[in-house]
Amino acid sequence: MITAQALVKQYGNKVAVDSIDFTVRPGQVTGFLGPNGAGKSTTMRMIVGLDKPTSGRTEVNGRPYREHRAPLREVGVLLDAKAANGGRSAYKHLLAIAATHGIGAARVKEVIGLAGLDSVAGKRVGGFSLGMGQRLGIATALLGDPATIILDEPVNGLDPEGVRWVRTLMRNLAAEGRTVLLSSHLMSEMAQTADRLIVIGRGRILADDPIADVISGATRSVTRVRTHESERLMATIAGPGVVVSVLADGAIEVSGLTAEQVAVAASTAGIVLHEIASMSGSLEEAYIALTAGEVEYRSSSAAGTGAHK
Ligand SMILES: Nc1ncnc2c1ncn2[C@@H]1O[C@H](COP(=O)(O)OP(=O)(O)OP(=O)(O)O)[C@@H](O)[C@H]1O
């Protein structure tokens, strides 16, 4: 479990984290989202004692991080995958960290296997690809078999197999009852991995809800219907708050009624439907809607460069 209470971090005049409160619960994957510069890394750094809050507090498993006598066994962290010593082999790197925390070589071998690093465990970390470095960072985070895991951009640089591996690992860790906090800018990946989301913008919390609620709260869901009797169906379902539009392919899109209500109305009127689907918005749409106006760094033109020809 991770908690933050009235947590503030100021760098000079810059308020990076602006009095936030949240609880990250065990048994779930919680996604931590926000535009560049929103304050995610600063928050994660404060949780694990790498940055001191200007005011407020954070706790991991019921105590401030620094008060844990064996922090590696409480919380596993991946904040900077490039932090490993380049001259050592992956095995030696993990063994050195394990030794300073009273963790045996057997656990080192175990996490090497878990992270899919068996074939490169004897190789110098300096020669690792970004993806291998990420795997090593995740192996390090898991070394102490911690109840809480915090990973900042863990899929950065991973190939599709690696991305899927991280997703499955996170889901399994949560299913074991652990607390998993995960940041990523990959919305489709987050949508498949997280149960709950905390979204921040300019240091403030914009949403802290189950993922389905974040999506339904920030996007419009519609019912898409296809029938040979579009005109009659439109007349049948017309009413206050019901908006219908005819799409280019002849299907009609209805907002203001659930798919069930449309199906019942059609059935009562004896109208045969060839297709009916409830279309909810995507996490990406919800995220863009939620963070509009909260983006610190935005390109001035969506079309990119090429203005001077
Ligand atoms: N050491 C520092 N000194 C001064 N300002 C800082 C420092 N660290 C972070 N900031 C500022 O605090 C704000 C939050 O930064 P932070 O790195 O926490 O954002 P983030 O959400 O992790 O962004 P990203 O998605 O780009 O990693 C930014 O405006 C950043 O420039």
From TrEMBL:
Domain of life, source organism = Bacteria
Query: What keywords appear on the UniProt entry?
Result: ATP-binding, Nucleotide-binding, Transport
Domain ABC transporter, chain residue ranges per copy: 2-227
Matching InterPro entries, A to Z?
A: AAA+_ATPase, ABC_transporter-like_ATP-bd, P-loop_NTPase
Family recorded in the similarity comment: Belongs to the ABC transporter superfamily.
Per its UniProt record, what PANTHER family does this chain match? Answer: ABC TRANSPORTER, ATP-BINDING PROTEIN (PTHR43335)
The name on file for this protein is ATP-binding cassette domain-containing protein
